[in-house]
Amino acid sequence: MTQDAALRPLGWNDEVATSLTAALAAGPDLVPGRIVRVDRGEVDVATGVDDIVRATSTTSAKDAVAGDWVALDRGAARVTAIAPRSTAFVRRAARGARSAQTLAANMDVVLVVQALEPGINIRRLERELVLAHQSGARPLVVLTKTDVVDDATSTKAVAEASRCAPRVAVVAVSNRTRAGFDELERLVEPSRTFALLGSSGVGKSTLVNSFAGERVQLEGEIRDGDGKGRHTTTAARLLCLADGRLLLDTPGVRALALWESWEGLAGAFPEIESTGEQCQFADCFHDNEPGCAVIAAVESGTIDADRLESWRTLRDEMAELDADLVEQQRKADRRGRPAHR
Ligand SMILES: Nc1nc2c(ncn2[C@@H]2O[C@H](COP(=O)(O)OP(=O)(O)OP(=O)(O)O)[C@@H](O)[C@H]2O)c(=O)[nH]1
Ligand SMILES: [Mg+2]
Ligand SMILES: [Zn+2]
User: Fold this and answer.
1) Most buried pick, 43, 53, 166, 199, via CB within 10 A?
2) Residue 33 gets which letter from DSSP?
3) How many Å lie between the centroid of ligand 3 and the Cα of residue 193?
4) What atom of ligand 1 comes closest to residue 206's alpha carbon?
5) Given a cut of 90, is residue 228 above it in pLDDT?
6) pTM for the full model?
């Protein structure tokens, strides 16, 4: 099998090939591969669906994440470089932290997963959508566990989620009964990479297993009482299913603090973004400036007041991050070296 044919089921295409050209040219024995798993300094690099090399990362490639395309020195079992990412789902490592954490890379679609039981969380969904839009990939919302709620609850949740996700498809499914799966299967096409993101216990790994038709990922228990998951999945993993689907399962994260996401904020709140173009001031922050078209739209009822409220909260968090990063840069400049992010 040619190298291209072996890599194609992993998502390889001309664009990926181009992104790796420079990295592969750095040495004579380097081959392309895709990171399918990262675990404490060791990475599993696939050079074909059934050809996985456990490698270590050199300094230049220590930030590799699942989904990354890399140059691999097969003989030395070393990753020598990471290709520039086409998309990346990035959060702030923690609220107040001055570093970012990448959870998944090079996905075409972010599946934002929430569970109908114990119930969807709109505030969280807004954040997930901001980061999903910012990632450069297309978001898709999946609400799981329709089997444990009645139809009215599920319909209401889909409507609420849709209101918070303009221009994004929202699908409700059950991993138990497979209700809703026909629609989801149509949306999750083979050869494109779908990253699953969401809190622990919402059913990300179970969704992967539903697609696979077998247990390829461990599924967790839900704690009695709070309905929260137990963080069953501990490392992100890219799975190449027999039918050609590429699913990137990630560990549930508790908090989703925003990293640089101004574009993501605009993408997740398109109604505020487009109406804001009519504000009197180009840099209007839609607080109480004169001639604010967004506030006018809220008053006339075309934009929901709670949407603007959410937008403001996320905007403030972004502004706080910007200020923190400027401060960090200033300190670094004083010491005469670049800031590490
Ligand atoms: N009733 C019902 N239970 C489900 C459904 N999907 C998942 N579950 C259950 O929810 C629990 C958690 O599922 P997981 O797939 O492990 O959740 P996860 O999102 O991967 O969680 P982490 O790996 O911890 O991030 C398991 O007990 C699943 O069996 C569903 O559609 N209906
Ligand atoms: Mg899991
Ligand atoms: Zn305005």
Assistant:
1) 43
2) E
3) 37
4) 15
5) no
6) 0.95
